[in-house]
Design goal:
Distance between the termini: 30 Å
Strand order of the largest sheet: 7-8-9-10-20-16-15-12
Shape: globular
CATH class of one domain: Mainly Beta
Radius of gyration: 19 Å
CATH architecture of one domain: Distorted Sandwich
Number of strands: 20
Largest sheet: 8 strands, antiparallel
Helix content: under 10%
Strand content: 35-45%
Amino acid sequence: MRGYMLRKILVVGFLLCVAAMRADATVRVEKTGYKGWANCYRITNGDVELIVTGDVGPRIMRFGFVGGQNLFKEFAEQLGKSGEKEFQLRGGDRVWKAPEDPVATWAPDNVPVEIQVTATGVIAREPVEPLTQLQKEIEIRLAPAGTEVRVFHRITNHSLFPLEFAPWALTMMAPGGMAVSGFPPRGTHPKNLEATNPLVMWAYTNLAKIGMFNKDTWAAYLLNGEAFIKRTKAEPGQHYTDFGCSFETFTNNEFLEMETLGPMTKVTPGATVELVEDWALFRKAELGQVSDEELDRVLLPFLAAMEKDAAN
């Protein structure tokens, strides 16, 4: 992983009245089939498109330029299926409960979800999970033009008791690319002697999973001359799971996952926590070589453009 100034660099019912409708002046939401699922929803502004499943989830299975490659991983043997008893990776973007445990975190999401069309996209909301009494949802708000998307990952506690957990947004990337994420600003010795952030490892991998904290949490994925960037704002002073991680990444021979986490929160019955990410796609993301200077040249303008748009 490389970074920011890149010496500083190292997530049943359908409430549609019609199959396709105009959501915003230039945002369209249309019901469509996708990879064997009959009830999916395409959100597009003519520049980019997203596919959200209605038969399972909530999942965002595709994000790409219109007619272009899907930057997200898809498990071909799991597409078009539903109703499995066990959790299925499937691919795409999902929301989980952190910290990870083999029962509650891996609760199956293999049944139909409610789809609500909004002015700029959709909300995909699963039924309350029988195992956990949690309810997960993902909301997509697509810009009227360009490539920027705001994605809300939410979890509601429908149990009878307060539960402490964090929202966790995991995005599975298609194989063959490279992930980049950013550390907080670096300093010099002996001027800056204090520790600044954690770098966390897991016992079950040999650095195939690592985590860290950055107030400006972001990650980029470069694949075939295009870049996908997701970013969120972490909260210093709040308690984050996994020794204080706001970002984690995991990889194996099939995919790479870029994951952001919100702070640990005591969620009372009926209350909801959410983690908001801003996404964008960029072209002309070719590296001449893998170096700090090249990563600066390619990624810093993309990050600056996202920062400028977020401020407007």
